[in-house]
Structures are given as C-alpha cells and as structure tokens.
C-alpha cells in the first residue's frame, strides 16, 4: 500500500511544480485597461505590465454584438489604440488587449460592453455673447461629434444657461432651460454678466461638460418715451431743413442756367434754329445788277493813232 501511494504523491508534486513554473514563465497582461470616449470618439488605454517593459508590444482588438474580433492596433509600443474610425454611432462593442514579446503572449484583458451613444461623454458646447443695450444675446454651438452630427444622434436636446453678475456667482445666479440655440437675456444696464452653458439630452438623460465661463458687459438701458420722441423730432426737423436747402440750391442753379429774361426775337430764332436761318439766307433771291456802258473815243490832241482804240469798261453797280 505504501509503495503505491509514494509514486502518486511524487507525480502530483511534479505536476504542481510544473504548473508553478509555467505560471512564472507566462508574460504578464497589461493592467488598468480603460475606455476614453468623448464626443463619440473612442480610445482604449492601458498600463504596461509591471517589471516587464522591455521589448513588449501590444495587440488591440474589438468586436460587436454579431461580428468577430477585428484587429485595429498590432505590434505597437504605445499604450493606447484609437478605434474611432472603425465604429458606428449606435454600435455596441467590447474591446481587448494583450502584451506580446518574442513570440510569447499574455492573456487578453477585456472591457465590458460599451454603447457608443449612451456611454460616450459629451464635451462642452461653444458659447458666444453679443451685448446690445441692456440685453445680451447668447449663441450656442453644439458639441462637435467625431463620427456623426450632434443633431443626428441627440435630436431632443435642451440647453441650460446659467448667468450671474460678475463676482456674485454664489448669491446671484439664474438658470434658464431652452431648446433654442439663440437666447436673449434682458438684464440690468451698465453691469457685467458671466454665462455658462451645458447640454441636456432627453435620450439617456445625459449632461454635457459645462462650457467655459464667458463674460460680457451691458450698456445703457431703454430711454424714456419722451426722450425718444424728442430725439426723433429733432432728427426729422434737421432732415427736412437739409432737404429744403438742397432744393433751394438746385433751383438757383437751374435759374442761372435758364434765366427768365427774353432775348430779341431774331436772336431767339438763330439760337433755336441756326441751320434753318442759314439756309433761308442762302435761298433768298439775289439783288439785280445794273450795268452802264462807257465808250471812249480818240481825241484830236495831235497824236496820231494808226489803229482805232476802243475801250469798253463796265462798271458794276449793285443796288
């Protein structure tokens, strides 16, 4: 009996020692595996195995509800892997990572199921303030999602607007909830206000991260009605006076260019129709010309003339 028990104990001890040796030789797995997801982006992060940081690379995978494992990062020394471009905005996924070194691998470290639109963190909205008199217009921009438009995922969203006088946040704070992305706040004149906004989605009852605190000063408030009426009357009176003065100067210029004094009739006719006057002068009958014949006969002064000299001159007399 004792001879039979001894070999059995020996075998158990050997197997136990072999198991301990195998465990000691196994490559440790990454630790502290976690998901960092903001605005529908998703990065898987982890810490390196303790005391095993040399020549270690990592392999990271994911799978959906009905899909098999797909590798996104491999043979990388980085302790993170960005899965964003591989995911769907309404997808449900599980992620895993392991360490590798010279052919040895660690066990897989896995996350739980992650629902993209429910579990992602919404970043802060953008806020712009414009002051006009005693009111401030608040313009809100949706958080920018990495794989979709905000309205396509969270189509029922409200904006919580908190505002207070600068320096009095604790004792003078007001909140307004609205679905509008532009809101006008009626405030006190000549006062500086600070505004902070965050998004609330009815789907999953999610709150976004708060926006940065933005401050703006109001100017003077609305004037009294009689002041507005007086200013309006003065402006209209000045406008009418300037318009009348402009018409007067125009009238003077027109009178200068076209005076009322009448020119003589023949000047007027020449001015009105110079071409027709010239044609009338050219077409009028010419005066009749009168000619007188003068004959010169040789005299007896002792001069001899061999030929008869007859000279005729015509003197033209125009009546």
Automatic annotation (TrEMBL):
Q: Which Pfam families match?
A: Interfer-bind (PF09294), Tissue_fac (PF01108)
Q: SUPFAM superfamilies given for it?
A: Fibronectin type III (SSF49265)
Q: Which residues form the signal peptide?
A: 1-25
Spell out the Gene3D superfamilies in the cross-references: Immunoglobulins (2.60.40.10)
Q: Which domain of life is it from?
A: Eukaryota
What are the GO cellular component annotations?
plasma membrane
The chain positions of domain Fibronectin type-III read 29-119
- Under what name is this protein listed? Fibronectin type-III domain-containing protein
Source organism: Oncorhynchus tshawytscha
């Amino acid at each position: 009996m004792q001879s039979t028990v001894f070999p059995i104990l020996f075998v158990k001890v050997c197997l136990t020692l072999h198991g301990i040796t195998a465990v000691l030789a196994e490559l440790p797995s990454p630790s502290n595996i976690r998901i960092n997801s903001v605005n529908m982006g998703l990065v898987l992060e982890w810490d390196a195995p303790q005391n095993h940081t040399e020549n270690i690379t990592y392999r990271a995978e994911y799978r959906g509800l009905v899909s098999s494992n797909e590798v996104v990062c491999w043979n990388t020394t980085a302790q993170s892997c960005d899965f964003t471009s591989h995911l769907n905005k309404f997808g449900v996924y599980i992620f895993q990572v392991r360490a590798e070194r010279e052919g040895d691998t660690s066990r897989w470290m896995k996350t739980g199921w992650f629902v993209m639109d429910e579990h992602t963190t919404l970043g802060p909205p953008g806020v712009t303030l414009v002051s006009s008199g005693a009111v401030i217009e608040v313009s809100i921009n949706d958080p920018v999602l990495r794989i979709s438009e905000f309205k396509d995922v969270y189509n029922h969203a409200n904006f919580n607007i908190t505002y207070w006088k600068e320096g009095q946040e604790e004792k003078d704070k007001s909140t307004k909830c609205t679905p509008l992305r532009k809101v006008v706040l009626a405030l006190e004149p000549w006062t500086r206000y600070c505004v902070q906004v965050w998004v609330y989605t009815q789907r999953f009852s999610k709150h976004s991260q708060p926006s940065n605190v933005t401050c703006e000063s109001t100017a003077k408030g609305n004037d009294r009605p009689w002041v507005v009426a007086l200013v309006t009357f003065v402006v209209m009176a000045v406008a009418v006076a300037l318009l009348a003065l402009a018409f007067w100067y125009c009238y003077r210029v027109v009178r200068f260019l076209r005076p009322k004094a009448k020119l003589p009739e023949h000047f007027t006719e020449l001015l009105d129709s110079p071409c027709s006057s010239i044609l009338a002068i050219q077409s009028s009958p010419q005066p009749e010309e009168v000619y007188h014949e003068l004959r010169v006969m040789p005299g007896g002064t002792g001069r001899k003339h061999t030929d008869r000299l007859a000279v005729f001159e015509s003197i033209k007399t125009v009546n």
